[in-house]
Amino acid sequence: MGSKFTHLKRVMELNLSFNDAQLALVPELPSLIEQRYHLLKLIKLAGPIGRRPLSSMSGYSERETRTMLELFNQQGLVGISKEGVSITEKGVDVLFILHDTIEEKSGRRELAKELTKRLSIQKVHIVEGDSDHSGLTKKLLGMHTAKQFRTHIHNRKIVAVTGGSSVAAIPPFMQNDELSDIQFIAARGGVGEEIGLQANMIAASFAEACGASYKAFYYPDTLSEEAHAVFQHEPAAKEMLDLYSKTECVIHGIGDASKMALLRNSPEKEQRILVDRQAKGEAFGFYFNRNGEIVHRIRTVGIQIEQLQNVPLIFAVAGGESKAEALLSYLASAPEQTILMTDEGAAKKMLSLM
Asked: Do 176 and 153 contact (CB within 8 A), yes or no?
């Protein structure tokens, strides 16, 4: 008994917890857990997936990947079939339980808090990786935005979405959602982007994923100023303008100013204007300088910047270190109710620029 008492006394003096004792015995435990968490998360995103593609995506050797997959399979976290490896319900539950702890230890949570304070917006969420270098990071961004959308949408009925690859990454993670009473609308008329990344197509993708309705809006972006003025009085345009005034949620991307001008095949004169006025970011057809001031806008029909102040729920979605300046230029004057969904690459660069 004396010996047991001595051990207890020593443990109390050292303030040694169960977790401390585990780490003393297995110091590599935290990195091992994070490694397996990361691989399981990739399977959730990309599955069903073969072992070799999974190894390539994760950066782990085929041998390491095989060893972890065997363990996952034994624990019932994944299922293995001829189509590849897929996560099970138990695997999803394990990811859910570990999420907060992993995020806390990664430093992303503190980084998000710091950016939220400095940007004076409602919230910043950061996923691991850099969208510039990993397509999977963009999928993570889509998955987490879908999760936050489900958490915050409540009974809001009209949701406007913009074009762009980051917003297009969201609908695949909203499959089977019971949000059939929502109407998704294009935040502005179609322009010259790749067809699959236009707001109309993305609004349709959201609607299909949620079993909801959508409203497309086709705006001919070659209209003259006079024709543009007339077009706004057309029934289709007037209907969309009415919907914009009633919009309760906006999900939008943020573009690099020069890249967006090239994507739109903007005239050389317009591109020179953007350079001369030091445009850095673009959203909703508006171009912003590093101070958040609007320095140029394209001629289109859509949600206006001033209307955003009255929209209760706004998701700004963009990632990649190359987007940091663009993000800061828009967020310098973004509505305070904005929730920013971004990645580590963009977040760390933003903080360094600030």
From this structure: no
Report d(CA 169, CA 152) in Å as an integer: 19
Question: How does pLDDT run across 216-238, given as a tens digit for each residue?
Answer: 887 766 667 787 777 778 888 88
Listed by start position, the domains of the chain span 2-97, 107-353
What amino acid occupies position 204? Answer: A
Asked whether 153 and 179 are in contact (CB, 8 A), the reply is: yes
Instruction: List phi, psi (to 5°) of 316.
Output: -100, 125
In angstroms, rounded to a whole number, what is the distance separating the alpha carbons of residues 212 and 233?
A: 28
The C-alpha atoms of residue 329 and residue 254 are separated, in whole angstroms, by 10
CATH 1.10.10.10 fits 2-97, yes or no: yes
Residue with tokens 């591109």: 271
In CATH, 107-353 is 3.40.50.1360: yes
Calculate the alpha carbon distances from 225 to 37, 111, 220 in Å: 54, 45, 12
Return phi, psi of residue 156, to 5°. -75, 140
**Residue 25: predicted pLDDT:** 76
Query: Residue for token digits 């857990």?
Result: 33
- Residue 235: cis peptide before it, omega within 30 degrees of 0: no
Residue 1, pLDDT above cutoff 60: no
pTM (2 d.p.): 0.82
Report how far Cα 273 is from the mean position of its chain's Cα atoms: 30
Say if residue 108's pLDDT is above 80: yes
Can you tell me which residue has the tokens 């950061």?
A: 126
Cis check for the bond before 48: say yes or no (omega within 30 of 0).
yes
- Mean pLDDT calculated for residue range 72-88: 94
**Phi and psi torsions of 178, nearest 5°:** -90, 80
- Residue with the two structure tokens 């976290």: 77
Please, which pLDDT band fits residue 35 given cuts at 50, 70 and 90? confident
